[in-house]
From TrEMBL:
It comes from Aspergillus wentii DTO 134E9. Belongs to the iron/ascorbate-dependent oxidoreductase family. PANTHER family: 2-OXOGLUTARATE (2OG) AND FE(II)-DEPENDENT OXYGENASE SUPERFAMILY PROTEIN-RELATED. This is Fe2OG dioxygenase domain-containing protein. Residues 340-364 are annotated as: Disordered. Coiled coil: none annotated. It comes from the Eukaryota. Residues 22-125 form the Non-haem dioxygenase N-terminal domain. It holds the Pfam family 2OG-FeII_Oxy. Residues 203-277 form the Isopenicillin N synthase-like Fe(2+) 2OG dioxygenase domain.
């Protein structure tokens, strides 16, 4: 396997964001959950991005996943394509190769796509035997399973409890139960690679991923040093860079969690732009974890269970995302059935109605 190529943090002066860092080692201490919820309340309502630390994984375990990711992407293309995604079945798990997004349906494309990704689904009985992997991944599948489950059970689940405290839910496990690991849902671990571009290519299209919101509940981004991640600051209406903080995982909130809270928990608008000049020579490898509610969860606000959301409703601030009942599966399927055509229509029209009452947006 290929070890990480050292990449120093950029020396350029960039508009870095100041984000909250949650110390999850306090979660099980007396009063710890309440302290963490108080620390987090502004970030989840106004920003949608924050860091977590002390989540129980060693740097060696994290480095191993980046090494596996690089090893996978260094396989021959024909080998990787044996494990391609099956979009005709709205199945997002498997390999998506560079250039796929540059096909005819994508009207926003200006230069060649430089993104590859490999999605590994949850390790649950309902999905057992459904997917195959290249030998490199198959050999280390037990290790990947342990890693994925740890991210879910020791970061995602505690966060759901903290969100419930912020919402003043009587049942502090309500959101955690809707996001339980054993539920059938499209959660996945992702290996992602942004290949190097020339300065001329970046000038032609400075965005590697245009502004968007993620479709799930939370996204975990493991720390890597190539800068480029930005989120839209609501207060200033400007883009702020997310700095790589050693020993942390970056968390951003996403659409389904926003639907469950009537927009109170903010689905962050974010993008990936060209690296700074002193990092242009490096590839950007990512390890991410995406989580969603169970497939049968109705994506409506939990206003009847939350005094906070009831107060938001009285103030006219509560937002219901759909005009009729929509499940997680209903929401996810249109975006995964034909993402290339979907992205093209969204770029052309500035948004796309995919379910009744909801128009998915794209941002510059």
């Amino acid at each position: 396997m290929v070890s990480a190529t050292p990449c120093k943090e950029t020396n350029e002066s960039l508009p870095w964001s100041e984000l909250v860092t949650l110390d999850l080692s306090d979660f099980n201490n007396s009063g710890g959950r309440e302290r963490l919820a108080a620390q987090l309340s502004h970030a989840v309502h106004h920003v949608g991005f924050f860091y977590v630390k002390n989540f129980g994984l060693s740097q060696e375990q994290i480095d191993r996943q980046f090494t596996l990711a690089r090893g996978f992407f260094n396989l021959p293309l024909e080998e990787k394509q044996k494990f391609s995604v099956d979009y005709e079945k709205a199945d997002y798990n498997g390999y998506q190769w560079t250039g796929y997004r540059a096909n005819e349906g994508n009207f926003e494309k200006k230069v060649g796509d430089n993104i590859e990704m490999y999605n590994i689904p949850k390790f649950i009985p309902a999905l057992e035997g459904r997917y195959s992997h290249p030998p490199l991944i198959e050999t280390h599948l037990d290790e990947i399973e342990v890693f994925s489950k740890h991210l879910h059970n020791h970061i995602v689940v505690p966060l759901m409890v903290l969100f419930a405290i912020i919402l003043e839910l009587l049942d502090k496990n309500l959101l955690a139960d809707e996001h339980a690991y054993d539920n059938l849902s499209p959660d996945h671990l992702r290996y992602m690679k942004y290949s190097k571009r020339t300065a001329e290519q970046h000038a032609g299209e400075p965005m590697q991923v245009k502004g968007h919101t993620d479709l799930g509940s939370v996204t975990l981004l493991l720390c890597q040093s190539v800068a480029g991640s930005q989120f839209l600051n609501d207060e200033t209406q400007s883009w702020s860079y997310v700095r790589a903080q050693p020993g942390t995982i970056t968390v951003n909130l996403a659409d389904t969690l926003s639907f469950l809270t009537g927009g109170f928990l903010k689905s962050s608008i974010h993008r990936v732009t060209a690296p700074p000049k002193d990092q242009l020579a490096y590839e950007r490898t990512g390890v991410l974890y995406f989580t969603r509610p169970s497939n049968d969860t109705i994506l409506k606000s939990r206003v009847d269970s939350s005094p906070v959301l009831q107060r938001e409703k009285e103030l006219g601030k509560l937002k219901e995302g759909f005009s009729k009942p929509v499940t997680t599966a209903d929401f996810v399927k249109p975006k995964q059935l034909n993402p290339n055509l979907y992205e093209g229509k969204r770029a052309k029209d500035g948004g796309l109605g995919i379910t009744p009452g909801f128009k998915d947006q794209t941002y510059k």
